[in-house]
Amino acid sequence: MNVTHLECALCGLRHDAGVLQNLCVACGKPLLVRYDLEKASDTLTRNSLTTRESSLWRYREVLPIQDEANIVSLGEGWTPLFKADRLAATLPVKVDLFIKDEGQNPTQSFKARGMTAAISMAKELGVIKVAVPSAGNAAGAMAAYAAKAGMDAHIFMPSDTPHANIVECEQTGAHVTLVDGLITDCGKIVAE
Ligand SMILES: [Zn+2]
Predict the structure, then answer these.
(1) How far does residue 12's CA lie from ligand 1's centre (Å)?
(2) 143 Cα: distance to centroid of ligand 1 (angstroms)
(3) Pairing mode, if any, of strands 129-133 and 98-100?
(4) Residue 4 alpha carbon to ligand 1 centre in Å
(5) What is the pLDDT of residue 168?
(6) Dist. CA 185 → ligand 1 center (Å)
(7) What is the distance in A from the centroid of ligand 1 to the CA of 41?
(8) What does the pLDDT look like over 116-140, one tens digit per residue?
(9) Whether the Cβ atoms of residue 125 and residue 19 lie closer than 8 Å to each other
(10) CA of 34 relative to ligand 1 center, distance in Å
């Protein structure tokens, strides 16, 4: 809706947001989505937020989807904040300390936030197959969102990944390959 372009986080090179991209074509670093924030502020206001759904997509003006029909959501975001007074009392400065419980996301980690955006965007761009290197939580999130979208998910994990994460991916229908190496070795396989 309000996306202007993609921009390399390191070298600043502009990339087209309307076509499938991966890492920066010049330096290989991740791309950031840039928005027309003035245009976003026309409809993203304190008042408009009060009537919206309790999920991450309530902030859709600053999320990278053109057509809302492509949103792949499992109810992520809107996790609770707990006031942690006893922990705050142990700190050298007086603060109001809150802990945000991201374990209440659909796949029990904050990775659900990134994956709802990534898989929705992949759907919008016509992707039918996705792959990710992961040591656990990103894999579980991608498997679940790909399953919801009907995409083929391929996951490459180090062989010492906790069993629960492997089972989570397999149960949602992802193809899991265990790699005898580190997360960076998994990344190389995905890149190939
Ligand atoms: Zn770059």
Answers:
(1) 6
(2) 28
(3) unpaired
(4) 17
(5) 94
(6) 22
(7) 29
(8) 999 999 999 999 999 999 989 999 9
(9) yes
(10) 15
Q: 51-61: per-residue pLDDT in tens?
A: 999 999 999 99
15 Cα–ligand 1 center, Å? 10
Ligand 1 center from residue 156 Cα (angstroms): 25
- Residue 104 token pair: 């209440």
Please state, in angstroms and rounded to a whole number, the distance separating the CA atoms of residues 92 and 72.
43
- Which percentage of the chain shows pLDDT scores above 90? 98
CA of 70 to the centre of ligand 1 (A): 28
Helix (H, G, I), strand (E, B) or coil at 20: coil
In angstroms and rounded to an integer, the radius of gyration of the C-alpha atoms of the chain is 19
Alpha-carbon distance of 27 to 44, in angstroms, equals 34
Q: Tell me the two tokens of residue 62.
A: 């600053």
- Determine the 3-state secondary structure of 46 from DSSP: helix
How much is the pLDDT for 34? 97
Please give the Cα distance from 154 to 127 (Å, whole number).
13
> Dihedral of CA 71/75/76/78: which sign?
positive
- Length reported for the chain: 192
